[in-house]
Write a structure and sequence with these properties.
Rossmann fold; NAD; 5-stranded parallel β-sheet; binds nicotinamide-adenine-dinucleotide; globular; 12 helices
């Protein structure tokens, strides 16, 4: 019998038609609560024909142990930075993913964090809950300049919403979407340094690569405007946590809203959990009932297509699809 490892929690926890669709494959589905470490993946690897995974660590060593039984991987989500894509391709394992299903939901979360920081929302709500009527003065975002790093699917949705809030939008991307930028009056920054110098609010939406890792660190922080507010709904590793904590403590950075951390879940003493003016949410940017169902349906369709020997809706690498298994 075909065995599938299903490790994403939002897929499991949220009701919707994806559960019936997955059951229709007739496969045995083994549930784990991800994101799984490399050590846990190494324990599990070898007994599955397919992974339906979230942000579990799938290294070459995991793939070595998982093959030859493992034939396909369906990534639930868009970021494949925890998967050794090159090794997948070399070993002939097609890897599918889910672009275009969670960008609106993540953009909304970006503004939730941004507005919360500008209006001291968490602090104020906590005071009220304690019976303290302490009125702090915030800032409005209208008229400020937002710098967007990565004008991809989510970055563009953030840009559109920023315009509606009356923000000036500048952005930097290695691939510039000419038509979108022109149609929406988005200024192109020549590089990160220019973007950092101009942005009152910096919102990170690029993929995690070796080039973008530690984009915000002790070397780049001096290039930021004094009192910048940074939002990160992309990947924790884009920001060096220790350097961010120091930037917040000195006041150079006025606020950090992070939906993602370099360690998830974080250790209780993670440097950003108690940093001043820092709001951390537990990687829930795409976790809405609407988005989870869209993403789960796409990940399941991808999986079932590949189990049938057909192409998925979206594939990351160019490995050939194996012969039908169901
Ligand atoms: N918080 C969440 O729950 C959540 C949910 C979905 C996606 N994400 C993360 O959000 C990020 C963006 O997702 P997306 O769907 O918009 O992806 P996308 O691929 O559509 O966009 C990413 C953009 O980043 C750009 N980019 C790559 N390298 C760059 C660099 N060095 N400098 C500037 N730009 C660069 C790409 O050209 C692309 O336009 C990913 O890291 C993804 O993992 C987080």
């Amino acid at each position: 019998m075909i065995r599938i490892l299903l490790s994403t929690t939002s897929y499991q926890d949220i009701p919707g038609p994806h559960h019936d669709l997955l059951a229709s494959s007739g496969a045995e589905v083994v549930l784990e609560r991800g994101p799984l470490s490399e050590a846990r993946m190494l324990e599990l690897a070898g007994d599955f024909d397919a992974f339906l995974c979230g942000d579990d660590v799938i290294t070459r060593a995991v793939l070595d142990k998982a093959t030859p039984r493992l034939k396909i991987i369906s990534k639930y989500g868009i970021g494949v930075d925890k998967i050794d894509v090159e090794a997948c391709t070399e070993m002939g394992i097609p890897l599918s993913f889910c672009p275009g299903v969670n960008h609106t939901t993540v953009a909304e979360h970006t503004f939730a964090l941004m507005l919360a920081l500008f209006r001291h929302l968490v602090e104020e709500a906590n005071y009220c809950a304690e019976g303290v009527w302490k009125r702090m003065t915030g800032h409005e975002i209208m008229g400020k300049t937002i710098g967007i790093v990565g004008l991809g699917r989510i970055g563009r949705e953030v840009a559109l919403r920023a315009k509606a809030f009356g923000l000036k939008v500048i952005a930097y991307d290695v691939y510039w979407p000419v038509e979108f930028a022109e149609a929406n009056d988005i200024e192109r920054a020549s590089g990160l340094t220019q973007l950092f110098r101009q942005a009152d609010i910096l919102s990170l939406h690029s993929n995690l690569t070796e080039e973008t890792r530690d984009m915000i660190d002790a070397r780049s922080i001096p290039n930021l405007k004094d009192g910048v507010v940074i939002i990160n709904c992309a990947r924790g590793e884009l920001v060096n946590s220790v350097d961010m904590a120091a930037g917040l403590a000195s006041g150079k950075i006025a606020g950090y809203g992070a939906d993602v951390l370099d360690e998830e879940p974080p250790a209780a003493d993670h440097v950003l959990l108690k940093a001043p003016n820092c709001i951390v949410t537990p990687h829930i940017g795409s976790r809405t009932y609407e988005s989870v169902v869209r993403q789960a349906m796409m990940a399941t369709e991808n999986l079932i297509n590949m189990l049938k020997g057909e192409k998925p809706l979206a594939q990351v690498n160019e490995a050939p699809i194996p012969a039908a298994m169901i």
